[in-house]
């Protein structure tokens, strides 16, 4: 079984490469736009920024942004998953290496809640219909930020779906920075569908979120190559890609229907979210379409 079969995403990929009418907002690091597998991608930025292009192939932020973007937008047939290469990407670089954080010896780029709130509003106004947040926040995860919640509310009012990485601290509990009814938090799992012990989990994440493959994922890295990385940052794009393909296939589906179709469950008494099942989500939307 491969990664795409684990979450039953391949049938959707056989049906669509993603619609040109669907724009994905990626709030992340800069991207190596010269990578051969991304050279034909439809990538634009919210505004001119000194962080749009990578300054160095060894930059942690550049590796992160290029890797996440490659999962979604690299060419079909490349070594990356290449879920929806025909969709448009709106890139909003938000971090640089000066604020990388270390967790268990691994460096993860991060942003502040205020910066993230501004980026969400900007990317919504730029026309994104789905936002992928594969990043950490440099402030405490137990603090609630009104400005960030207002940005989430703004996305909800504009019917823009948000998929967010749950984080890699291995904590169990309540995480206010991603606790919003409109957000789909994503936990990382292995190829047997078992939760990665480094993923943050809890009842709220279980009720609103999903698990997706996030261990030893292969995607694009700066300099034209491919690499393997692990973490919830790289699980989130699989859920984002699932929603993008569903929207591309079911053009009349509402954002609320799309969110319900991927969540697929009523309230659960568990701390582990269910595994993403793209085929089941497709069947649920087909049922709604025929009803």
**In what order do the strands lie side by side in the largest sheet?**
2-3-1-7-9-10-11
Q: What are the secondary-structure elements, in order, as H or E? A: HHEEHEEEEHEEHEEHEEEHHH
Q: In what range is the share of β-strand residues?
A: 15-25%
Number of strands: 13
Q: What is the architecture at the second tier of CATH?
A: 3-Layer(aba) Sandwich
Number of helices: 9
Q: Quick one: CATH class?
A: Alpha Beta
Can you tell me the residue ranges where pLDDT is under 50 for at least 5 consecutive residues?
Answer: 98-106
Biggest pleated sheet: 7 strands, parallel
Give the full name of the CATH homologous superfamily: Peptidase S8/S53 domain
CATH topology: Rossmann fold
How many separate domains make up the residues?
A: 1
Mean pLDDT: 89
Rg over C-alpha atoms, rounded to the nearest angstrom = 17 Å
Query: Helicity range of the residues?
Result: 25-40%
N/C terminus separation: 34 Å
What would you call the shape? globular
Quickly give the structural class.
alpha/beta
Give a structural overview.
The chain has helices at residues 3-6, 10-15, 60-73, 113-125, 146-157, 203-208, 232-249, 255-263, 278-290; strands at 23-28, 42-45, 88-93, 101-103, 106-108, 110-111, 130-133, 136-137, 161-165, 183-189, 210-213, 217-221, 225-229. It has 291 residues and is of the alpha/beta class. The chain has a single domain (3-290), classed as Peptidase S8/S53 domain (Rossmann fold, 3-Layer(aba) Sandwich), CATH 3.40.50.200. Strand 12 and strand 13 form a beta hairpin. 50% of the residues are buried.
């Amino acid at each position: 079984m491969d990664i795409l079969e684990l979450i039953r995403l391949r049938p959707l990929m056989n049906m669509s490469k993603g619609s040109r009418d669907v724009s994905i907002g990626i709030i992340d690091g800069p991207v190596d736009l010269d990578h051969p597998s991304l050279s034909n991608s439809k990538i634009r930025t919210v505004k001119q920024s000194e962080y749009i292009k990578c300054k160095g192939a060894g930059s942690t932020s550049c590796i992160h942004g290029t890797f996440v973007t490659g999962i979604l937008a690299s060419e079909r047939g490349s070594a990356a998953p290449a879920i929806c290469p025909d969709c448009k990407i709106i890139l909003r670089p938000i971090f640089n290496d000066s604020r990388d954080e270390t967790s268990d010896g691994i460096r993860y780029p991060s942003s502040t809640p205020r910066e993230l709130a501004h980026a969400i509003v900007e990317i919504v106004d730029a026309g994104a219909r789905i936002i992928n947040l594969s990043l950490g926040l440099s402030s405490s995860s137990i603090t609630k930020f009104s400005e960030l919640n207002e940005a989430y509310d703004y996305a909800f009012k504009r019917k823009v779906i948000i998929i967010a990485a749950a984080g890699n601290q291995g904590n169990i509990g309540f995480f206010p920075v991603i606790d919003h009814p409109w957000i789909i938090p994503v936990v990382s799992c292995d190829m047997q569908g078992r939760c990665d012990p480094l993923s943050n989990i809890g009842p709220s994440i279980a009720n609103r979120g999903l698990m997706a493959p996030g261990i030893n994922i292969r995607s694009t890295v700066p300099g034209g190559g491919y690499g393997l990385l692990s973490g919830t940052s790289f699980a989130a794009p699989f859920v984002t890609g699932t929603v993008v393909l569903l929207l591309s296939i079911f053009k009349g589906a509402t954002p609320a229907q799309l969110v319900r179709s991927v969540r697929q469950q009523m309230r659960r008494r568990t701390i582990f979210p269910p595994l993403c099942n793209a085929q089941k989500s497709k069947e649920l939307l087909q049922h709604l379409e025929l009803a």
